[in-house]
From TrEMBL:
It comes from the Bacteria. It is found in: Cell outer membrane. PROSITE patterns: TONB_DEPENDENT_REC_2. Residues 142-743 form the TonB-dependent receptor-like beta-barrel domain. This is TonB-dependent receptor. Pfam families: TonB_dep_Rec_b-barrel.
Length: 777
């Protein structure tokens, strides 16, 4: 929890008070499962009242923690959102696969072949959590409640009337905030199918030359049903409940209906719909079927109201790929040989065509549901024609040195569209001064062309959790120009807006993207000493730089870049606008960024740089009673930097040591085979990582630490995982196995979920038992 902010003048971003605390049993002071009414009773923070299942309003209890005006609570009667209803750690997954491999040798020079594969996966899991609202979540100015709502208890009405100063029978408005867990968790149920078939001919000729001609066609199909999505047009109609008798000008009769059913002026289509015409076309039917809903306290939603609001969303997509390719490979043994032997070669060509499409159901695509509205995607095809050649020249073999050889390869690719023609190539050397030691080095240039999604995605709705850099709490944490730029952009003094929900923006593709280019260098060797039979050690140093990286600045990055630049005359300030003195069309306060105004597209502007050393050691030893095998793989990362600053291309953002990117990681796999029984053990190590940015606590490129008191710890602790397995080979055709993963039941540290983001590097299933059998026919 954030508990402190640092003044702009703080040395190394630290005022000596830790900015955050790790706490147990944290409860939100804003959202709750029954509904939260925020009041201000004096002091620095709002005072939350919670709706009980009976519809009463009670003060939230617990120990306040966090920054005003919206604190959280340790303990008490609030919602933790870890009650087993809202957080999915792993999806359910079923996988089916079938493979066919066949060939028929007419002669060594003519062998027709075919390979076919079918794979299907069925999965279900929560990616989004339950529906929630906060007064601005839907984007409609009607996302409020009336104090005359017949579902509102007299006690709760009294609390709200006293707070606003409404008369007892006055029809005032109020906002409350709620996670609506009764409306399900918006699970995504997906069916994915892949079909692939390769057919062709291959063979050998000219003694030691070979060839292959093939055609490959594959399809990937996906159908996703978002279960328990909410229709926002119906939501706005259903929350506006009235007593039919009162609405007709008489006494209350207990017949609660939707206002729109008795008052034509309340029949309003969803204002924030992306397709206003579609929303309007559904309005009459939505009004006629409207079922009022009681959201004041958990457990009060009737089945009819639930069914009225819920509308499963559907999405389907398809990708196809066709590849025609051919190559000839061989060596020069029939023509000439070098001192080390014949020259090996391969030449070939390939044509590849890919298509993709994606479509949502009409209501979701129109923006009527609580799910990102994505326009139909049916871009032009992706096509590329390629030719390549490879050569390996053995210069020396078993002479005064054991072996020396050179290799080289090149590929030219002509892409349809703006990418055009690109080249990739590599060259390498293998040098073995003695039989026990082989040294190697390689340089390669590789390219990655933009894919169809990056090129042609139609701008669609998206959301991001952001902090406004011009808010008083953030204005001192950026560049020296941030404060002046915020004022120059019309942000009023004293502005301290805090987002209670995500910022809506538009994201799409960029047809002018070029290919990414990478340069990589590797140097290493393999040591297999004859005096230690069964042992080998390989060590490789790698250095990879990727230029013209296709990257979309984040919504937060664009906003920050606008104000952290020297002035407002930059490309990032052109990507969004703020509300003027009169506010914005969707209730934005003066100075607030307008909803669905910011635009994010991918650009070729970034660079990536990684360096490290890979170690691999293996040892096999046969004893009279069995065989012992072990293999260890260790990676030591020396550099992992991203150069993603839109305003400062040379500014490195270090990922190394940050969550998900440890400096050190290794696996050790060992087994002992004793007759028909094999005992296996796997040791996995994950090194320490920082809970926030590496730059918080450490200098980078000569820059001082940025926020040295950001967290009460500098690193998350190391993690060791131990897995064991026992295999029993009953017969040559039947094998049985049992195992236990994560024997010590290690959990992700400090409340991390192990789901998504960097924390997915940790095991989140705990101690895991499994058993199985393999039968061969």
């Amino acid at each position: 929890m954030t508990v402190d902010t640092d003044p702009a003048s703080s040395v190394n971003g630290s005022d000596g008070v830790t900015d955050t605390r790790f706490v147990n049993d944290i409860r939100s002071g804003i959202y709750s499962n029954g509904g939260t009414f925020l009041s201000y009773l004096g002091g620095d923070s709002y005072t939350p009242y919670l709706f009980t299942p009976s519809g009463q309003l009670i003060l939230q209890t617990g120990t306040p923690v966090g920054l005003p005006p919206l604190p959280s609570y340790i303990g008490g009667n609030g919602s933790s959102f870890r009650e087993g209803k809202q957080l999915a750690l792993s999806p359910a997954l079923d996988r089916y696969s079938a493979n066919l491999v066949a060939k028929f040798e007419i002669s060594p020079a003519l062998v027709p072949f075919i390979e076919a594969k079918y794979v299907r996966t069925d999965s279900i899991g929560s990616q989004s959590g339950p529906f929630f609202f906060s007064g601005g979540t839907t984007g409609s100015p009607r996302e409020f409640f009336y104090t005359t709502n017949p579902y509102l208890s007299a006690q709760a009405r009294g609390v709200i009337n006293d707070y606003y100063g409404y008369a007892p029978n006055e029809e005032g408005t109020f906002t409350f905030i709620r996670n609506v867990v009764e409306l399900s968790n918006r699970d995504e149920k997906a069916k994915r199918e892949t079909y692939r078939a390769v057919g062709g001919i291959k063979g050998r000729f000219n003694d030691d030359w070979n060839y292959e001609l093939s055609a490959n066609y594959g399809e990937f199909k996906e159908k996703t049903r978002i279960l328990g999505n909410v229709n926002l047009q119906r939501f706005l109609l259903a929350i506006d409940a009235v007593d039919a008798g009162v609405a007709a000008g008489g006494a209350a009769n207990g017949n609660i209906v939707c206002r729109a059913q008795v008052d034509p002026s309340a029949r309003i289509a969803f204002e924030a719909a992306g397709n206003a015409a579609y929303a309007a076309s559904q309005l009459a039917a939505d009004v006629a079927a409207c079922v009022p809903i009681n959201l004041f306290g958990e457990g009060n939603i009737t089945p009819n109201a639930r069914n009225y609001l819920l509308q499963d969303s559907l999405a389907s997509g398809k990708i196809t790929q066709f590849v025609a390719s051919g190559f000839v490979a061989g060596d020069s043994s029939q023509l000439f040989e070098l001192p080390g032997g014949p020259v090996g070669f391969a030449v070939g060509a390939e044509y590849r065509r890919e298509t993709t499409n994606y479509v949502q159901d009409e209501a979701t695509a129109a923006g009527l549901t609580f799910y990102n509205a994505i326009p139909p995607f049916d871009p032009p095809s992706f096509e590329v024609k390629e030719a390549y050649a490879e050569i390996r020249a053995p210069l020396i073999r078993e002479s005064f040195i054991h072996e020396l050889s050179l290799s080289a390869a090149g590929r030219v690719a002509d892409y349809k569209g703006a990418t055009g023609t690109v080249y990739s190539y590599n060259a390498g050397i293998d040098f073995a001064p003695v039989r026990d030691l082989r040294l190697r080095g390689n340089y390669s240039r590789a390219v990655r062309a933009p894919n169809l999604t990056e090129l042609f995605t139609v701008p669609g709705q998206n959301f991001a959790t952001v902090g406004d850099p011009c808010s008083a709490r953030n204005i001192g944490t950026g560049s020296a120009t941030r404060a002046a730029n915020c004022r120059a952009d019309g942000v009023p003094a004293g502005y301290d807006f805090v987002y209670r929900q995500s910022l809506g923006f538009l994201s799409g593709g960029n047809e002018n993207l070029k290919a990414e280019k990478s340069d990589s260098y590797t140097v290493g060797g393999v040591f297999q000493p004859r005096f230690i039979p069964g042992f080998s050690l390989s060590v490789d140093y790698y250095d990879i730089t990727v230029n013209d990286v296709i990257s979309s600045p984040s919504a937060q990055g664009i906003i920050n870049a606008c104000y952290d630049a020297a002035d407002l005359n930059n490309q990032f300030c052109d990507l969004f606008a703020r509300a003027g003195a009169g506010g914005g069309p969707r209730g934005e306060i003066p100075g607030q960024i307008l909803e669905n105004n910011l635009t994010v597209v991918p650009l070729n502007y970034a660079k990536l740089k990684v360096r490290g050393i890979d170690f691999e050691a293996a040892y096999t030893k046969r004893f009279g009673f069995g065989t012992f095998n072990t293999r260890a793989i260790y990676t030591r990362v020396l550099q992992n930097d991203s150069f993603l600053s839109p305003t400062d291309p040379g500014r490195a953002d270090q990922a190394l040591f940050e969550l998900g990117d440890p400096r050190d990681a290794f696996n050790v796999n060992s087994s002992l085979k004793l007759g028909a029984v094999t005992i296996g053990h796997k040791l996995r190590y994950i090194g320490k990582m920082t809970p926030g940015a590496y730059e918080n606590n450490f200098s980078k490129q000569g820059r001082p630490p940025q926020n040295a008191d950001a967290f009460p710890i500098v690193f998350y602790p190391e993690r060791w995982y131990n897995d064991v397995r026992l295999d029993f080979e009953a017969t040559r055709k039947f094998n049985f196995y049992v195992g236990v993963d994560n024997v010590a039941n290690e959990k992700p540290p400090f409340g991390l979920t192990g789901a998504g983001g960097g924390s997915a590097i940790y095991n989140n299933t705990g101690r895991f038992f499994y058993a199985g059998a393999i039968a061969k026919f």
